[in-house]
TrEMBL record:
Entry-linked Pfam families: Rotamase_3
PROSITE patterns, alphabetized: PPIC_PPIASE_2
Domain PpiC as annotated: residue spans: 94-168
Coiled-coil segments on the chain, per record: none
Leader sequence residues: 1-19
Protein name: Peptidylprolyl isomerase
Organism: Thalassobellus suaedae
Length: 212
């Protein structure tokens, strides 16, 4: 009986090692986006995916290790239930932008009221009120809860008129100014909080296998 159990254990271990070795070898051959897409289709699990990590947004111990690796490199993490493979598929650097803003809705207020409100907001800021407080008090979108902070965004994430005004902006940090998008009836008070920043991103192929 004991001999049979040992044989079964050896067979199970052998099967696990074979599967693991197969996965590692498969990952070594994957290089192009098309190969990644095809490989994920064969795995047929929502746990297996291509993930984009941003060096500014993702600062876990794992992502810090992944950012240090070269394209093509693989990291393996394992616990008693799962073995996870991370392969660096691509590394890029992109220009990001970030401001704080107060949004005023031209469909709810007439332009005269918006003009008066913006002047009031700017005067309050220049007299010492924090922009965070003013955004929570006056801004008319959900970003008010964040004190108006846009977070880091890429060209193409926002309305083109908004982006172009930010990208072509020549203001200094902590300058306050306005942006109008009349076609949408969107009106903004902008606080310049950051200079444009080049941020590294990595695309990581994540494959999870069960450990039996």
């Amino acid at each position: 009986m004991l001999k049979q159990l040992l044989i079964l254990l050896l067979i199970s271990c052998s099967a696990i090692l074979k599967a693991q070795n197969t996965t590692e070898k498969e990952l070594e051959t994957i290089e192009t986006p098309e190969q990644i897409k095809s490989y994920l289709e064969t795995k047929n699990s929502k746990k297996n995916k291509l993930i984009t990590f941003n060096e500014e947004k993702h600062k876990t111990r794992l992502t810090k290790e992944l950012f240090k690796m070269h394209v093509g490199g693989t990291k393996i993490s394992e616990n008693e239930f799962e073995k996870t493979y991370y392969k660096i598929a691509d590394k890029t650097k992109k220009i990001y932008y970030r401001v704080s803003y107060i949004y005023l809705d031209g469909t709810k207020y007439k332009l005269e009221k918006i003009t008066n409100l913006r002047n009031l907001i700017i005067n309050k800021f220049k007299n010492g009120a924090s922009f965070d407080f003013l955004a929570k008090q006056y801004s008319m979108d959900d970003n008010a809860n964040k004190g108006g902070d846009s977070g880091w965004f890429l060209k193409g994430d926002m309305h083109p008129d908004f982006e172009n005004s930010i990208i072509k902006d020549s203001h200094e940090i902590h300058d306050i100014f306005t942006i109008d998008i009349p076609s949408k009836k969107w009106y903004y008070v902008i606080l310049k909080t950051y200079e444009p920043k080049e941020i590294s991103e990595i695309e990581v192929l994540k494959i999870i296998e069960q450990v039996n």
